[in-house]
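User: Some background: our group keeps a shared notebook of sequences we're curious about, and every so often someone picks one and asks for a predicted structure to add to the entry. Today it's my turn. The entry only has the sequence so far, pasted here. Could you supply the structure so I can complete it?
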Amino acid sequence: MFYLLNPKKFNDFPVTIENIFNSKKRNLTVEIGFGGGEYLAELSNNNKDNYFIGIETSITSCLRTEKKLSKYSLKNVKIINDDAKFVIRELFDEESIKKIIVNFPCPWPKKRHENKRIFDDSFINTLNNVLEINGEIELATDVEWYSLEVKEQFEKNENFEIVKYEKNFDRTPKTRYEMKWEEMGRDKYLLIIRKKKHLKIKRILEEKSEMPHSKIQEINEENIFSLKNKKISENEKIIVIKNVFKSEDSYLIKTYTSEEEYDQEFFLVLYKKDNYWLLKLDEITNPYRTPAVKLSVEKISEYISR
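Assistant: Of course. Here's the predicted structure to add to the notebook entry:
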């Protein structure tokens, strides 16, 4: 059973739950930052009539979690190795998630790191959009000041209401850290927030995710190699050419893009085809076809055809 889901395989965004699981719709719970995966595995196993998706940036955690899920032979759970802020906004349709769980996230206590905290205004709006009416967000943390900060953020937002704030709560299942901290007598805090009103948001993958490419009649090889370390900025989109490699009559262009706080690194391939040159995404690296990725094909094509 394969549990690791690659959202980049979809051609249209957002994606319905039925297409993700190839089955009829059920209630969906999403866990952000599932770590070792023990909580996600037990929750999925105890609720087989519902769907579960875990999102985690660590590939090591994803591989460990796959092993835990395999022990139960579960068919109602998937995991994604990516940035949750981007994936939740782009992958999930409006009002498609019943519950979102965030277990013991890093609170990023230093002032200079506060922009890394997960519950910023933009992400709170994203959570509102993808949650069903009366859908819930559940935050568990061992840091009191952080729990109060998040509580205050949602109290100020008219689209949500606080359902519960509890110190030293008891619940099932539990993460391994949760069990360890209980044994140590360490305090923990549970915050449950409910969606009251719906909010529209803007996504960047709302149009069909076609493979961007460009046909070029003639190329300037000198311009191709001068692309290395070139930086292009346009409308808050950043493109950086990291390197250029040549192999016979083809070129591989290592490219980096950044937009909407989401970074991607991928290759563009340039090769001769019939009586023209073709510049397109390399299918192995296969990034999301975001506006910045499409812009990189356009700008590089212009530059090398001069």
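Suggested note for the entry: The chain has nine helices and 13 strands. The chain has two domains: 7-195, 213-304.
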